[in-house]
Amino acid sequence: MPRTAIVFGFLLIVLASIFFWSTGHNHPTALIPGGVGMLLMLLGLAAQNAQGKRRALWMHIAVTLGLLGFLGTAKAIFQTVEIFQGMTLPHPPAIEEKAAMSIACLIFTLLCVRSFLAARRLRKA
């Protein structure tokens, strides 16, 4: 799972870079997913270099960050659907970026939860 955290962190950094430069690089809030991605990458690297309970600790912190990232941006998914249905909302690129971040964080969180459950089953067996 540490590699997954690193990959999703990298994807969030790329997402932030694309939206930052495509919106004329004068909206620094477009870099927020990059900050979350940087933290995910650092947590993934920490987990990759740790053993046992420390590894689990770093990954639990990473999945908590992913869950918070999803919960903080989930509303944008519905707003993106409204934009595609023809509704006009202010700052559509920002809404689309938040929706992409939300989906990425959700996928990361679900993958981590699935891995945690599999590890628990393996320990019990």
Any overview of this molecule?
The protein has one domain. With 125 residues, the chain is mostly helical. It is elongated, with a radius of gyration of 16 Å. Helix 1 packs antiparallel against helix 5 (92-124), helix 2 runs antiparallel to helix 3 (52-73) and helix 4 (75-84) crosses helix 5. The two termini are 20 Å apart. The mean pLDDT is 91. 82% of the residues lie in helices and 0% in strands.
Detail the topology: elements first, then pairings.
Elements: H1 2-22, H2 32-48, H3 52-73, H4 75-84, H5 92-124
The tally of beta strands, per DSSP, is 0
Structural class: mainly alpha
Q: Give the DSSP E fraction (strand runs of 2 or more residues).
A: under 5%
State the helix count: 5
Overall, the morphology is: elongated
Report the end-to-end length measured between terminal Cα atoms.
20 Å
Helical content (DSSP H or I, runs of 4+): over 70%
Q: Summarize the helix and strand pattern as letters.
A: HHHHH
Largest sheet: none
| Rg (C-alpha, Å) | 16 Å
Mean pLDDT over all positions: 91
Taking pLDDT < 50 over at least 5 consecutive residues as the criterion, the unreliable ranges are none
Domain count: 1
